Amino acid sequence: MDADYGIPRELSDLQKLRSHYHPELPPCLQGTTVRVELRDATTAADPSGEHTIKRFFPHTYGQPLAHFLRATAKVPDAQIITEHPAIRVGVLFCGRQSPGGHNVIWGLHDALKVHNPKNILLGFLGGSEGLFAQKTLEITDDVLATYKNQGGYDMLGRTKDQIRTTEQVNAAMAACKALKLDGLVIIGGVTSNTDAAHLAEKFAETKCLTKVVGVPVTLNGDLKNQFVEANVGFDTICKVNSQLISNVCTDALSAEKYYYFIRLMGRKASHVALECTLQSHPNMVILGEEVAASKLTIFDITQQICDAVQARAEHDKNHGVILLPEGLIESIPEVYALLQEIHGLLRQGVSADKISSQLSPWASALFEFLPHFIRKQLLLHPESDDSAQLSQIETEKLIAHLVETEMNKRLKEGTYKGKKFNAICHFFGYQARGSLPSKFDCDYAYVLGHVCYHILAAGLNGYMATITNLKNPANKWHCGASPISAMMTVKRYGRGPGKASIGVPALHPATVDLRGKSYELLSQNATKFLLDDVYRNPGPLQFDGPGADAKAVSLCVEDQDYIGRIKKLQEYLDKVRTIVKPGCSQDVLKAALSAMASVTDILSVISSPSSVSTPF
Amino acid sequence: MDADYGIPRELSDLQKLRSHYHPELPPCLQGTTVRVELRDATTAADPSGEHTIKRFFPHTYGQPLAHFLRATAKVPDAQIITEHPAIRVGVLFCGRQSPGGHNVIWGLHDALKVHNPKNILLGFLGGSEGLFAQKTLEITDDVLATYKNQGGYDMLGRTKDQIRTTEQVNAAMAACKALKLDGLVIIGGVTSNTDAAHLAEKFAETKCLTKVVGVPVTLNGDLKNQFVEANVGFDTICKVNSQLISNVCTDALSAEKYYYFIRLMGRKASHVALECTLQSHPNMVILGEEVAASKLTIFDITQQICDAVQARAEHDKNHGVILLPEGLIESIPEVYALLQEIHGLLRQGVSADKISSQLSPWASALFEFLPHFIRKQLLLHPESDDSAQLSQIETEKLIAHLVETEMNKRLKEGTYKGKKFNAICHFFGYQARGSLPSKFDCDYAYVLGHVCYHILAAGLNGYMATITNLKNPANKWHCGASPISAMMTVKRYGRGPGKASIGVPALHPATVDLRGKSYELLSQNATKFLLDDVYRNPGPLQFDGPGADAKAVSLCVEDQDYIGRIKKLQEYLDKVRTIVKPGCSQDVLKAALSAMASVTDILSVISSPSSVSTPF
Prior knowledge:
Largest interface: A-B, 67 and 68 residues
Subcellular location (chains A, B): Cytoplasm
GO molecular function, one term (chains A, B): metal ion binding
Strand order of the largest sheet of chain A: 3-1-2-14-13-8-7-4-5-6
Oligomer: homodimer
Shape of chain A: globular
Family (chains A, B): Belongs to the phosphofructokinase type A (PFKA) family. PPi-dependent PFK group II subfamily. Clade 'Long' sub-subfamily.
Distance between the termini of chain A: 40 Å
Pathway (chains A, B): Carbohydrate degradation; glycolysis; D-glyceraldehyde 3-phosphate and glycerone phosphate from D-glucose: step 3/4
Radius of gyration of chain A: 26 Å
Strand content of chain A: 5-15%
Largest sheet of chain A: 10 strands, mixed
Subunit structure (chains A, B): Tetramer of two alpha (regulatory) and two beta (catalytic) chains.
Number of strands of chain A: 14
CATH class of the largest domain in chain A: Alpha Beta
Structural class of chain A: alpha/beta
């Protein structure tokens, strides 16, 4: 099997064309001299967790933000790294394949070779298991040739994606030491980057010389916080899904007799569903976050869809397209509670066929109410992160089934007078995950790869490579690095089998912000989407011409560039210092004192633990 | 509802770009003067059915092939049509939406307006039901503006797609008379074109002045015969499906733990599955035609897949991608027989829950053996063409289930030593059907629209618009028209509820020719596909650059241009006549006589009814 990794392969004409595409580097990373500015120490967004995070990360918490600037940038404190001794770096895919992953490795390889041709990049074969077993492939131009700008993770493969147990951490450390690695780059999502931070702390504690760097690559788009604007893979996934969704919309409008229920891969959070809605304008989407916030039951959801179907029928429309995120099922309070009971029993070793009889009365009642196929799926063992096997639970079929039953009832009672309700169900995910990456994902991943090199060259440990201001063209991107521990939060409540992770700092999947601009855009258009069939067909992913440079709608509407604004604030503070120097007038000093007192008062109040709710 | 048809709509950037694309016309159709050559009378490919076809089509059988040539073409007998009195033409979508359908209407509209600005084109709203109810929308440049080169049938919509019963035929005739139509263009597949031929005959018989023209538009690609090389929509469908299949292949190769079972829409025949296999090189495909020819049972198929899984595991490969056409289920002899029994009972009014007890003993045994979900799907009422509801029967889940059971058994017995078998199932169809059409489909459909006009201008009735030599660039395409009745065959055997159609000439779906070049290409590569993972990713549908002008593999490898070769033969015959004129030498005459006697002997033998098996 391993012999197949990284082998050259036959490419289609389009793949060949793409393999010749070369992403642009932002000015700050061009050439071989990069200035590194390390400014203020970072803090966790949720102050209430800070104490715990500090305790878990004594060596790596509170490190400063890093900015990478062009050599000519006029920043007094920045350090120019001019010496580039040869280093050895390892890299691995950790977590589900996301389009663009290969380009991180390509970018890292290019940066390594530009700065010192003697630098060595080793790819671990088969993900974390390859790391533990020290199975490597040296990354060279030849190896990369047929993987540049290509989808999948097949250059190196991936496996179970966990570096968490003592045994796993020790195996990882042994590998880094045996291979004399100066750096270890972990490409993955929320879970893998959490593991990366813990690994970095362990390395710092034990004086292991390998620096650990994380890269935000996940199609779910849920590794989002004040430092991270977007994840590699999300753009492609949403574009491919939107292509398919809008094809289905066109189909619905042509035949006028089907309701399509489409479930979208994306784990617990509904980012993919929201973005696809903004791109393709289906009639409805039900976000897990809405359901959780309004505590909607499965019956509420059914009624809401039935009312929509009925409203459309009154406009003579007997077709429609409804999106459901795969995480929806866990967002429905009573289903979540049922799942927790089931998982608890599974953990106790109760066999699947015995579970029904051991559920609490109310859980048992819900369970027995559900159709046969969905019961079987709810009984599946939970995933390694303690969530249900979301990709295997056909929520779309469950909802379609309940809606159909209700519509037939309404038809019989005469309250619904439209055509007989017909549903067709889909699950979109696997068919998008292996796609050729979009231009944005190619560019973003490639530049992130370069950033990884500069993090290592600066000797930083436990950082994630970050690029901000992404909605602007690549030549305006800001490159930097943030300590992963500063992105962590601590969950204090929980129940069920996941209890073990309570109290341990971790990156948690960012949910859709119901007060954010993307959601606002959806809310404003929801009625129009529902009734007017303003379906939008962005078409298949293009690499040239209109649409090729389009970016995710949610990326473009959100307030962005947190890090740019942090820098702006620092400039203001510097300016105040320059203006209010000893010798300035009484009036100027008075005005400055008054204004600063007011600012500090306001900030103290709104950043006290009691008033903060984590924005992600 | 109707108010929504043909309304201008917001297009995405890519849709806008596409809406400005203008297909090229072959030289023969350029300008306003086209020469029509009507040569030899056509005959049915299967002589044994000829008598019956003649009886059903006394007015429209045996009409000559028509060729459209450029005005300057030196063909002695061709007629130049110079007068173009204003005509009124109706057009409707009939049958499942196929990408490119809109362009037939656009091409027809352009041709009408070029030849006489007073020509009128009426689109029927909502397919055949719009025809019966005489609901029309006049097609204008404004209406077309946002539908050019766009997918779906939403400009006019479509419905049940049948013009067959006396009542339906009479309603159609009434509409044509009331609207004073000179021509009626029916856009559809096998069934709709059969209806078109019968309608043409009826019109001829009753002296209705409306001429009926059919256009081969069906994503299934099964309207294929000596006159028709390809169908509008097939190219797009196969490209979109291949994009998704190859994404799944990349995914399989990255995660290395799943077997993907993908069922493909395409009705009874396996053209879509074959073409997608040739484009994306998955590990396996099981064509319905192979199963039928080898009389494989469902157990044989299971064993065959299990052996493949086992062979791959011996090469350390625990992943794979397997394609199944949706028609497969009907190709399995014992399942087909079971379906016939079920449909018979359903027709007798037996309710679904009672059917199991009334099946014959062997059918009952098979039925009870099948998993619960598939039993429910087999009990669905058959479609209007008497076939099972193929899109609703999850054959891929059935096969995956049976394979999993068998692999677990082998694992237990120790005959299989690979990893635990994991299957993920997909059905690809709806998400491809509404796609933006490929350049080929845009061009092909647009030119077919023009051909329709010339058929009507030449006063032909009961013809299908045909273009041959399609594998070459559009400027080498040959445009013509063939009587639909000449493409018909007569089924003499059959059982079950479909019996009524036995003995009536019809177009039957062309199955994959197991002696054809496309299948040969598959056979040659099958082992390599199975074991070597030579996955090919053509990428998303492009409209520019590499791949944009690619044509279906099966189109390119098949011997083509039947009509071009018919013309070539006529040239040979003409040449013989020129050479062997009275006055030629004894030797020349002797040689000619001997050669011609031999040729006629050979042709008589191989075209006798007993030796002909229909090639489609």
